[in-house]
Amino acid sequence: MTEQQPQHDGVDQITAQWHAVRPDLDTSPMAVIGRLSRASRLLERGIKENLAAHGVEPWEFDVLATLLRSGPPHVLTAGALSSAAMVSSAALTNRIDHLVAKGLVERAVDPAHRRRVLISLTDTGRELTNRLAERHLAGEERQLAGLTAAEREQLTGLLRRVLLTLGDHAEEPPPR
Question: Model pTM?
Answer without folding.
Answer: 0.82
